[in-house]
C-alpha cells in the first residue's frame, strides 16, 4: 500500500494517496515513511493537528527523518508553540549540527524569543557555511534592526533580496529599516510591497 500511495502522490491524486498510506499504516503501524507522507498530505490540506501527529510518529519511528522534525517544528512555530518548535529544532540539530534549514529556523525562533545574543552568532555561522541562504540574511537583518543597527539591517535585507528577488518579508523589513533611517520614498515603497 505504501508504494501505491507513492504512485498516487506522484500523480497528485491526493485522496487516493492518503487512502493508500492509511492502509499501509493500518497494516504496519511503525512504517515511518507512510506517517511522514500522511503528514505532508495533511499539511497541504491545512489539517495541522493531523500533520503534527503524523510528523511526530515519523520522527519517533525514524530519528534519521530530519524533514519530519523540521516540518513538525515549522507547524508548531506557526501555531505559536515556540518552545516546542525550538525543542524540535534542537533535536534535529543534535542529529545534524550543520542542517542549514534547521539552523535558519532556530535562529528565527531565537529572534522571536528576543534571544538576540544567541540568534546573531547562529545567523553568522549559517552564512559562513552557506552565504546564499536568503532566510539567514533576513534573520541577521532582523537581529541587527532589533539591536539598533538599521544600516547593518539594510545591508542584510538587501543581500536577502539579491538572493531571492520576490522575498516579501525582506522587502517589508527593508522598508521599515529605510524609514527609520529617513529614506522615506524607498522605505514606503518597500514597506507597501508586502500588500501587493
TL;DR of this structure?
78% of the residues lie in helices and 0% in strands.
Class from helix and strand fractions: mainly alpha
Spell the H/E element sequence. HHHHHHHHHHHH
Radius of gyration: 20 Å
Poorly predicted parts: none
- Overall form: elongated
Count of distinct strands: 0
Measured as a percent range, the helix fraction is over 70%
Rounded average pLDDT: 96
Let me know the largest β-sheet: none
**Percentage of residues in DSSP E strands:** under 5%
Taking the alpha carbons of the first and last residues, their distance comes to 44 Å
How many separate helices?
12
Describe the structure.
The protein is built from twelve helices and no strands. The mean pLDDT is 96. The termini are far apart. Helices cover 78% and strands 0% of the residues. It is mostly helical and 196 residues long. The radius of gyration is 20 Å and the shape is elongated.
How would you describe this structure in keywords?
78% helix, mainly alpha, 196 residues, 12 helices, elongated
Layout of strands and helices, then pairs:
Layout: H1 2-10, H2 14-27, H3 32-44, H4 48-61, H5 66-78, H6 82-95, H7 100-112, H8 116-129, H9 134-146, H10 150-163, H11 168-180, H12 184-192
Amino acid at each position: 500500500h505504501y508504494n501505491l500511495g507513492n504512485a498516487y502522490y506522484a500523480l497528485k491524486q491526493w485522496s487516493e494517496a492518503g487512502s493508500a498510506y492509511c492502509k499501509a499504516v493500518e497494516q504496519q503501524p511503525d512504517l515511518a515513511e507512510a506517517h511522514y507522507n500522511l503528514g505532508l498530505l495533511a499539511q497541504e490540506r491545512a489539517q495541522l493537528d493531523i500533520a503534527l501527529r503524523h510528523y511526530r510518529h515519523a520522527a519517533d519511528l525514524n530519528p534519521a527523518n530530519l524533514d519530519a522534525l523540521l516540518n513538525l517544528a515549522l507547524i508548531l512555530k506557526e501555531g505559536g508553540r515556540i518552545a516546542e518548535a525550538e525543542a524540535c529544532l534542537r533535536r534535529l540539530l543534535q542529529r545534524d549540527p550543520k542542517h542549514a534549514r534547521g539552523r535558519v529556523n532556530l535562529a528565527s525562533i531565537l529572534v522571536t524569543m528576543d534571544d538576540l545574543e544567541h540568534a546573531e552568532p547562529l545567523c553568522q555561522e549559517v552564512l559562513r557555511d552557506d552565504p546564499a541562504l536568503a532566510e539567514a540574511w533576513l534573520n541577521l537583518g532582523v537581529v541587527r534592526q532589533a539591536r539598533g543597527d538599521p544600516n547593518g539591517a539594510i545591508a542584510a535585507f538587501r543581500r536577502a533580496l539579491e538572493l531571492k528577488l520576490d522575498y516579501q518579508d525582506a522587502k517589508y523589513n527593508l522598508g521599515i529599516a529605510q524609514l527609520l533611517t529617513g529614506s522615506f520614498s524607498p522605505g514606503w515603497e518597500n514597506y507597501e510591497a508586502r500588500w501587493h
